[in-house]
Amino acid sequence: MIEDHFIVRLQQLVADGRRRILGLVGAPGAGKSTLAQAILDALPGRAVVVPMDGFHLANVELERLGRASRKGAEDTFDSAGYVALLGRLRAQRHDECIYAPTFRREIEEPVAGAIPVMPDTPLVVTEGNYLLLEHGHWKGVRELLDEAWYVDVDPALRRKRLVGRHMMFGRDEDAARNWVQQTDEVNAVLIESTRARADLVFQWPS
After folding, report:
1. Which of 22, 123, 129, 162 is 20–30 Å from 30 (CA)?
2. Cα separation of 158 and 27, whole Å?
3. At CA 170, angle to CA 204 and CA 127, rounded to 5?
4. pLDDT at 179
5. What does the pLDDT profile of the chain (206 residues) look like in tens digits?
6. How far is CA 164 from CA 29, 158, 159, 178, in A?
7. Residue 20's closest CA among 102, 117, 90?
8. Which domains does the chain have, with CATH numbers?
């Protein structure tokens, strides 16, 4: 699934056994989670995935803020908390296990303390939409990454995936298409504008 030169790059990244953080960034539906899993498979026992989506604000808080209809936008995450966790992961002590949150699509909520990161795990893969933004707390992310890969795929395929994903988790087809057009694609434009800050582009085949 991953071409050989990407695997070589990953192996070089973790060759000395020291903690490294790789960021995977891209628009919704680009295949970031799929690539993260492929990296785990390529580096068995040497990598862990810590998704940015674990820092989604809870639905009740999004309702309070009036942002529930824009869930997934940059201001619907605890960006300061995410940056703080990345800082902890860079400086992790040899006797410390750090717990990271995850996001459960079946309940559409983050779950705290779900991902244990052991101190002897050399590679932390963090994937999400806004790793390369240059404003707010997000601007602190890039300096905490050893590398950032922009994950890209054919836009039509990406939108098709998103509609299918939203339908899988409860929306009818019209609602799914409206959400993709009015929310996901608005976010995708912003994410695409950060592409130049990545170290390389990982292009999925169409």
Report:
1. 123
2. 9
3. 35
4. 84
5. 788 999 999 999 999 999 999 999 999 989 999 999 999 999 999 999 999 999 999 999 999 999 998 899 999 999 999 999 999 999 999 999 999 999 998 898 999 999 999 999 999 999 999 999 999 999 999 999 999 999 999 988 988 988 888 888 788 989 989 888 888 888 898 999 999 999 999 999 87
6. 10, 10, 9, 12
7. 90
8. 23-203 (3.40.50.300)
Element (H, E) at 20: strand 20-25
> Residue 146 corresponds to which tokens in the numbers above?
């050893």
What is the DSSP pairing of strand 147-152 with strand 20-25?
parallel
Task: Give the list of residues 6+ apart from residue 9 with CB closer than 8 angstroms, or none.
Answer: none
pLDDT tens, position by position, 149-171:
999 999 889 889 888 888 887 88
Task: Enter the tokens of residue 85.
Answer: 């966790």
Nearest-angstrom CA–CA distance, 81 and 137? 9
Are the C-beta atoms of 153 and 204 separated by less than 8 Å? yes
**Helices 32-42 & 4-13, crossing angle to 10 degrees?**
70
- Sign of the CA dihedral with 141 first, then 143, 144, and 148 last: positive
Calculate Rg over the CA atoms of the chain.
17
- Is this structure's pTM higher than 0.85? yes
Query: What type of residue sits at position 136?
Result: G
159's CB contacts (< 8 A; 6+ apart) are 29, 180, 184, 185
Nearest to 130 by CA among 166, 78, 181: 78
